[in-house]
What does this fold into?
Amino acid sequence: MKTFYNIITSVFFILLISSCSSKPVQLNVMSFNIWVGGGKSLDATAQVIVDSKADIVGIQESTRAGKNMAVHIADSLGWYSYVYSNSPTIISRYPIVDTTTNKYGVKIKIDEKHFVWMFNVHLMYCPYEPYQLNGIEYCGAPLLETEQQAIESAIKSRGETVNASVADMLEVQKEGYPIFITGDFNEPSCLDWTKKATEAGLCKIPVAWPSTKAYLDKAGMKDSYRVIYPDEVKNPGHTWTTLPAENEILDRIDFLLFWGEKIKVENSQLAGESSDLSDIKFNNYPSDHRAVLSTFILE
It folds into this structure.
């Protein structure tokens, strides 16, 4: 009788543990600058999101003629949306249930056991230091010659926003849920402008660009694209631009960073025009930026 009781008790606890455990969840997150509220076509912009099977999208340049087109897309899909300003907007297949102290991030409920924090920024576009380092005049900013000049210029332009969002991240990290940040940084990555890349002719000089460096060093974020493609020369991952000018400086300035112990990035792709520079190709791609789409597994 005692043996039978022990068996029943063991089965009960096994079922209890099984019911309390959660299955891993796959999540597709995208960073997408939609080029002044939809670029060449708002319908084509929405199609990129749908065909890419994104679940959460950090959108930059959301507004056209005073109307937030990212919210319009979310409404048309039956999704949720969060507007921080005229440019950064988050849209999500899943409900948005909270915001961070400085309003840079939102908490998203995937299911009863899975939550994520999502941040999205559009950092200052002027000055644009890669142009200045390459002798290209832009928005009246002075030309630059050294790494230190470029770093000081970038911090002056973008440091306040970066530090405020990092502060929000550090606060919500206490909950332990995965964190994402998407954005058009208007600044390259500290992982890309290396000595190796300089020797390969991909950049002017090595620069430890401060915005990405702050998110990686201060908030412990990881770059989803560089996790999958660690070689900055073999896979430069240029997101700027699909419409290059005559003397354009091609670069990777759109990012999807992530943090968390119970999260793994499985893949990272660039969505863009029908060319060898895009992984997900569209014949009628609407934006001047390629989008970044990364697939994650949440435990």
About this structure: Residues 23-298 form a domain with the Deoxyribonuclease I; Chain A fold (CATH 3.60.10.10). The mean pLDDT is 94.
